[in-house]
Design goal:
Chain lengths: ~525, ~325
């Protein structure tokens, strides 16, 4: 422990709040990063990690609070200020000029002299590579490098610009296990040479492996900052997924009915191989919620897409009421009563520049209720919108208002009102409460339970363990595209599910982490 | 100096302003609909040229103005459907496809023109033209009658199409679907709207309107065809869509205003007034840039304009 003292604090967020339309991405965040240590920011998708990193790097300015460097508040309006202050960042999506060589890419952004001295740059870069044990051919065009190699170029760029703090946003997502090992070895070496590392991740075992300190974020807030040596993976899981006693919904379960969704042996390949599905089988019955737990990126997106018809399956069967729906388009699936609430409600669910009423009827504009012989029935639409406003407690000035102005919770209510209007037989829900405030979260959960009680079969994909434990009849856990465990709600514990989520299989000696 | 001022409100200038505005309005309305479905069709200059030729050659050879208009429209639709195959089915970059369509359209129209009318060195071939459709009684009103009610039937049709189009886009199932596709195709797809089908229809309509614009240039205005018959009107139509912020009322105003600018500078030239008319010709584009700046905060540009849609891509 090399210093708990205030003078070892290099980078600090002091009461930082950042809002985006409809969400509070960072809510009163205070945290300290100590010099020459590896500090992990851990949290689920949407917990606010990347936003915080962007605040440290001057991409955004905080609405409230301040970022401090070496004890002094620094005001940054662009990454240029961050670079000048000695902060470097490797973002999830690289910013490289692919036809240009590694050397040229690294030199971009250095200024001061009219003439770029490539010879001197080559010398300095060589020294940096030697110092940290980085192996990259400086004359190769960046586009010819593997993705893992490109990440090294990004790291070199930051180092070359003379950073003291290096922020890495999910750097292991693009790496093979060997690549991760190399990266971590290098990061440790950098820390021992005096560099400060901030590493953003949602993978528990990485935190345990690399970091000195860990800060857990949840729903935009800091849960706790601890010394990594003083916490266990189970502790971190609990902090990450949280325990909102307030949000517990009193669930009285009716006996489940007939089998509705029967999926077996489902394979879906993705281009990168990440997030694919491997031999997934699951069943959902009437009056039943099957929860799908898992850390994001373990195949949940593919599962949702293949069920709603946005992606074809490579192998396996999807039966709804014993009928194969593989050939049905999204429209066809809608017709037989499959409704869906996508995780990305803005990009997959709503038209932000349209009226609320128009979003409420999207997909049913040709039904008799909303139109006749090609004309839209304004009265029918208005009545339905008023009903939806009342039934779903939508807080907006009027249905004629543009959708963009609404908060995240109200946006989600619009999607729910639309999808639930047809009394769906099967409801596929993905991350229904992500980014919502407590009130809206509670409301959405209650509606799901109501829908279940009216007989719907519900597949609930969520990264919020608390939500799953609260609502599901059974919980299945996805890891690396497979269902690695399934448990009845009565037997489910955070620890057990947390282990599955972390890739630690139930069988002894089969630890994947 | 008095010439410069007098031309501003000259009855002849105003009447020709509306005439000149007609093809601009037609093409801009068509492009607006196409863009509302998310497709940026930069190929309307070429489409207008092809349609102008199609109208001209059929009107001349078949000796029927109505068949001429019909074939011009047909050519416009065909060319736009080619664009639809490229951008909506194959998902080629829209800007590239649009520019290619221009080169192809203008080149082909001129090639066919030469095939039908080998150069003889004599006078340019000339087709019949439509007569002005003077509206009984109304055209007798002094000044107003000459300016507004003594135009071509297609001019009346273009202006009347504005409310019809507004109603269709805003009050029909089809219109709602079309606008939705340009705003969020992923959400539409998930809710069962045929994204590709809508884009084909929108492009076909854009082709129909550009086709009418082309027909107007050849068999209404001049009875002539030449390579530069479109003379940048396709590009001005594109500018008018932006200037009009994708709203029909403002597009109508924009077309009339730009038409007026052109009529005004023509009349100044005819009177031999020494003003740099190039400045007036450049004005539509300058104003469009200004409108872009002013509208930046409340732009009605379709959110998904110009971006190919791939199902299941995040």
């Amino acid at each position: 422990m090399n210093g708990d003292g205030a003078d070892s604090v290099l980078l600090r967020a002091r009461g930082v709040t950042k809002r985006f339309p409809g969400v509070v991405a960072n809510d009163d965040i205070t945290l300290e990063v100590h010099r020459a240590r590896v500090h992990c920011l851990l949290g689920e998708n949407g917990a606010g990690k990347s936003t915080l990193a962007d605040l440290f790097y001057g991409v955004h300015e905080p609405d409230e609070g301040a970022i401090e460097l070496r004890g002094e508040p620094i005001h940054m309006v662009s990454p240029r200020d961050a670079i000048a202050a000695g902060i470097g960042m490797v973002r999830q999506h690289f910013e490289l000029v692919t036809p240009m060589s590694v050397l040229e890419n690294v030199v971009i952004g250095t200024r001061g002299e009219a003439k770029v001295d490539l010879r001197a740059a080559r010398g300095r870069l060589g020294e940096l590579c030697d110092l940290y044990g980085v192996e990259v051919d400086l004359d190769t065009p960046v586009g010819d490098l593997a993705v893992g190699q490109q990440q090294w170029v990004e790291i070199l760029k930051a180092l070359y610009l003379g950073c003291e703090v290096l922020i890495l946003d999910e750097p292991t997502a693009v790496l093979t296990p060997e690549g991760i090992e190399r990266l971590f070895a290098t990061l440790r070496r950098m820390a021992s040479e005096g560099l400060t590392i901030v590493l953003i991740t949602h993978k528990l075992h990485e935190v345990m492996e690399i970091s000195d300190d860990v800060t857990v974020l949840r729903r935009g807030r800091v849960v706790r900052t601890s010394l990594t040596s003083e916490v266990t993976m189970a502790d971190l899981t609990r902090m990450m997924v949280g325990r909102d006693v307030d949000l517990a919904i009193d669930v009285v379960e009716a006996p489940r009915g007939d089998l509705v969704l029967d999926v077996s042996g489902l394979d879906v390949a993705t281009e990168s191989g990440r997030g694919s599905l491997k031999q997934v089988s699951l069943q959902v019955h009437e009056r039943e919620i099957l929860g799908i737990a898992g850390v994001s990126g373990n195949g949940q997106d593919a599962l949702f897409d293949v069920l709603v018809g946005m992606k074809p399956a490579d192998a396996g069967r999807i039966l709804v009421d014993a009928k194969d729906i593989a050939e049905l388009s999204p429209a066809g699936r809608l017709e037989i009563g499959i409704a869906s609430v996508p995780a990305d409600r803005i990009h997959q669910g709503l038209m932000m520049d349209f009226r609320i009423s128009e979003n409420l009827i999207l997909g049913r504009q040709r039904s008799d209720r909303f139109g006749r012989r090609g004309w839209l029935n304004q009265k029918g639409i208005g009545e339905f919108a008023d009903d939806s406003f009342a039934a779903f407690d939508i807080a907006a000035p009027s249905p004629a208002h543009v959708t963009r102005v609404l908060s995240g919770g109200n946006l989600q209510k619009i999607v729910m009102a639309r999808e639930l209007a047809g009394q769906p037989r099967l409801l596929v829900v993905h991350q229904p409460t992500r980014g919502l405030d407590i009130g809206a979260t509670e409301y959405v959960r209650r509606r799901l339970v109501e829908e279940r009680d009216q007989g719907a079969a519900i597949l609930l994909i969520s990264e919020d363990l608390d939500e799953l434990l609260n609502l599901s009849s059974r919980i299945a856990v996805m890891f690396d595209g497979r269902i690695v465990g399934e448990v009845d709600r009565r037997d489910a514990t955070v620890d057990r599910i947390g282990m599955w989520m972390a890739g630690v299989s139930g069988a002894p000696g089969e630890a994947l982490a | 100096m008095s010439d410069v001022l007098e031309a501003l409100i000259n009855v002849g200038v105003l009447a020709s302003a509306i005439r000149i505005a007609t093809p601009l309005l037609l093409a801009a309305l068509g492009e607006m609909v196409t863009e509302r479905a998310g497709i940026l069709n930069l190929g309307i200059e070429g489409t207008i040229t092809v349609s102008a030729f199609g109208s001209f050659v059929v009107a001349d050879k078949a000796d029927s103005l109505w068949l001429g208009v019909l074939s011009g429209v047909g050519a416009g639709i065909l060319l736009s459907l080619l664009m639809a195959v490229l951008v909506s089915s194959i998902k080629v970059e829209q800007v590239v496809a649009g520019l290619a369509l221009n080169l192809f359209g203008i080149g082909m129209a001129f090639y066919l023109f030469r095939a039908f009318y080998p150069q003889t060195g004599g006078e340019m071939p000339r087709s019949d033209t439509f007569d002005y459709a003077e509206i009984p009684l109304l055209s007798d009103i002094p000044a107003v009658g000459e300016v507004v009610f003594s135009q071509h039937w297609l001019t009346y049709a273009a202006i009347l199409s504005c409310p019809v189009l507004w109603w269709t886009l805003n009050r029909t199932q089809f219109g709602l679907e079309l606008r939705s596709v340009g705003n969020n195709p992923a959400a539409c797809d998930m809710r069962g709207i045929n994204v590709t089908g809508m884009q084909y229809l929108a492009l076909a309509f854009g082709g129909l309107m550009a086709g009418l614009a082309g027909a107007f240039l050849s068999v209404f205005l001049s009875g002539l065809f030449f390579v530069d018959v479109a003379a940048g009107r396709g590009w001005i139509a594109l500018a008018i869509v932006i200037f009009g912020n994708w709203r029909i009322g403002r597009i109508l105003a924009g077309a009339l205003f730009f038409g007026y600018l052109d009529a005004y500078q023509l009349s100044l030239q005819a009177r031999g007034v020494e003003v740099p008319h190039q400045l007036l010709l450049a004005l539509p584009f300058v104003l469009t840039i200004a409108a872009l700046v002013v509208n930046r905060r409340r732009s009605h540009e379709p959110l998904h304009l110009g971006v190919p849609y791939f199902r299941g891509e995040r």
